[in-house]
Amino acid sequence: MPPVGELVLFALALSGAAVVAGVLAGLFGIGGGAILVPVFYQVFGLIGIDDAVRMHLSVGTSLAIIAPTSVRSFMAHKARGTVDLDLLRSWILPVPCGVIAASLIAASVSSSALRGIFAGIALLLGIRMLLNKQGWRLGADLPPNPVRAMVGALIGLLSGLMGIGGGVLNNTFMTLFGRPVHQAVSTSSGVGVLIAIPGLFGYIWAGWGAAGLPPFSTGYINWVMMAVVIPITLIVAPLGVRLAHALDKRQIEIGFGLFMLLVAARFIFSLI
Questions:
Q1: Half-sphere exposure (CA, 13 Å, Cβ side) for 127?
Q2: What's the CA gap between 268 and 1, in Å, rounded?
Q3: How far is 98 from 157, CA to CA, in rounded Å?
Q4: CA neighbor of 173 nearest in space, from 102, 84, 65
Q5: What is the pLDDT of residues 123-145, one digit of tens each?
Q6: Helix, strand or coil, per DSSP, at residue 217
Q7: Residues 6+ apart with CB under 8 A from 57
Q8: Transmembrane region positions (predicted)?
């Protein structure tokens, strides 16, 4: 066991990450997984969890936490009337199918491979956040099917592999096709629901019976982490929603982009 002081320090870090994740869930319509996964990875390492399941646990537990957080954020945005419900209805099947595919991949790849996937996507997302221009457009409106369905499945796949709510990906998609940023953020909270619920069950299945899991785990979901983080994220998510409708988020996007680049560098370094 690590020293008590280190456990207290990481407990504080975990609580702080939960606050940031909850605010980001409302502010960007994301689930906060980009914050939680690297923190979970460090905490699981501190308490001696086997490296073979450490990253899988981090991603799976993050998705499980995103489920209630996204629902809370979605209901708050929906009450403001800014959610594109038609897009969400069109993605009821494609997004979960992408998440299920991610669970199948997670069940068969190593921890190193999963870290490499996370690092690669985090690097691209960080660059996207830093270079994002509000005026960039690919079209005047969202594309119809089958392109729309393919994008939904891709968002589900990438988000399921990273343990994130898909907000950054959906925000990019919607704003590139002329949708207002506030509508994109609001709708992303609903996308998070479509990702997190099948992701929770998918990672339970993927890790069922895996060796080296810590106590109070079902598959790649650790219920202790959930019990610590979920109450905090649920409390602070509405604050992020209020900020989303009150702030110019460009500076926050830059800060989040830099954070993603640091996370990518951390996981790349772990592979060397």
A1: 7
A2: 27
A3: 4
A4: 84
A5: 988 888 788 766 677 888 899 99
A6: strand
A7: 40, 44, 49, 207, 213, 214, 217, 220, 221, 222
A8: 7-37, 57-75, 87-107, 113-131, 151-169, 189-208, 220-240, 252-269
Half-sphere exposure of 70 (CA within 13 A, CB side): 29
Structural tokens at position 82: 């800014």
* Cα–Cα distance for residue pair 48/61, rounded to 1 Å: 17
Residue of 155 and 11 predicted with greater confidence: 155
Assess whether pLDDT exceeds 80 at residue 80.
yes
Integer angstrom CA distances of residue 30 from 97, 248, 256: 19, 17, 12
What percent of the chain is modeled with pLDDT above 70?
90
Spatial neighbors of 148 by CB under 8 A, at least 6 apart, are: 87, 90, 91, 94, 142
Alpha helices of 3-132 — where are they, by DSSP H? 4-27, 33-46, 51-79, 85-90, 94-108, 111-131
Residue 140 CA to residue 142 CA, distance in Å, equals: 7
Output the six-digit token pair for 106: 């997670």
Q: Give the DSSP H or E segment for 80.
A: none
The residues with which 222 forms a beta bridge, in sequence order, are 217
102-127: per-residue pLDDT in tens?
A: 999 999 999 899 999 999 988 988 88
Q: Which two tokens stand for residue 107?
A: 């069940």
Task: Please give the Cα distance from 248 to 251 (Å, whole number).
Answer: 8
Between 13 and 59, the higher pLDDT residue: 59
Q: What's the chain's length in residues? A: 272
Q: Looking only at Cα atoms, what is the longest distance across the chain?
A: 57
Which is nearest to 174 in space by CA: 44, 270, 86, 69? 86
